[in-house]
């Protein structure tokens, strides 16, 4: 993220240390992860020690310190989704994308993650592409879903 | 003055003190790994558990962060306390089977081989290093990272903390001695954090005695000490 962009976010939160989580969320919003130099810049501007920011950023699962793809694919592995076949969907996703859990495809389009429950068990197995929820997923539907997102990101 | 009893013996304490502190001052033996008198209590190691009776309620609690109160009864060696401590020691021993201080505790409380799967971590996450760095030194070069079973203490990015002054306070307070400090003629290295800093030579005897960064920092945070104080080693001051 540009330093100007970070400045704007910091200004919006009036440089309050207590707003650090909200600040990190907004910084992450744009690029799906928190780059080292952005965190250093925030620590300098607030100003709070870098360790305090890393402590928070490494604690919450919502934050990533590793680059993630444009579309984050989250496969629900909660009990309900699990018994409805989520592991098979996950295996198919791994195969189609050629990556393991927590990795990003080489073209930077997709990252694969697992979650423990999305609170919509009736729709299971659920896979979330970015912010779109896909219920009743099957291994067969994985391919078409990926294709769709590949297409939309080309446009 | 607040009066209460520990194992039936009456003791006096001042408002704001914690039970463990008072007990140790009065010569009671309560094991503890995450407590240091210069730091805020943290209640992480759970070894200092005692039974405290207040009114008609008795409960097991950590003494390091329990504020003294008039008339409470503290018991440090009841069956319940010993049982709780033994479990804590067993868990610590499973995590760090090769740490001398934990092996000694296990022997003292006759805890054998743990039922749990053995690990070989020399850090018990007591947080003393992190607290001393923040509360006493004030540089916050290290902190807790991650969560749950992958939680650990370290600098941001887990290597070479840029704000670390290599003072070695973390190594000094570490109960398991897992933070090592190495010194050669010109440099001091805090091995666990991967931080190496050049040291200043004493103006009088010429011996390297402390990192430049550390002395600069001390010069900044202290008042009314002549500048050349930080040019001489402790022996020549």
Multimeric status of the protein: heterodimer
Silhouette of chain B: globular
CATH superfamily of the largest domain in chain A: Glutaredoxin
Shape of chain A: elongated
Write up what this structure looks like:
The complex is a heterodimer of chains A (155) and B (237). The model of chain A has no long low-confidence stretch (mean pLDDT 90). Chain A is of the alpha+beta class. Chain A is built from seven helices and four strands, in the order ααααβααβββα. In chain A, a hairpin with a 2-residue loop joins strand 3 and strand 4. Chain A has two domains: 57 residues, no CATH class; 84 residues, Glutaredoxin, CATH 3.40.30.10. Chain B folds into two domains: 107 residues, Roll (Ubiquitin-like (UB roll)); 104 residues, no CATH class. In chain B, the strands form three sheets. In chain B, strands 2-1-5-3-4 form a five-stranded mixed sheet, with helices on both faces. In chain B, strands 8-9-10-11 form a four-stranded antiparallel sheet. Chain B has a two-stranded antiparallel ribbon with strand order 6-7. The model of chain B has no long low-confidence stretch (mean pLDDT 92). At the A-B interface, helix 4 of A face strand 6 of B.
Keywords:
heterodimer; A: 155 residues; alpha+beta; Glutaredoxin; 2 domains; four-stranded mixed beta sheet; 7 helices; elongated; B: 237 residues; Ubiquitin-like (UB roll); five-stranded mixed beta sheet; four-stranded antiparallel beta sheet; 6 helices; 11 strands; 21% strand
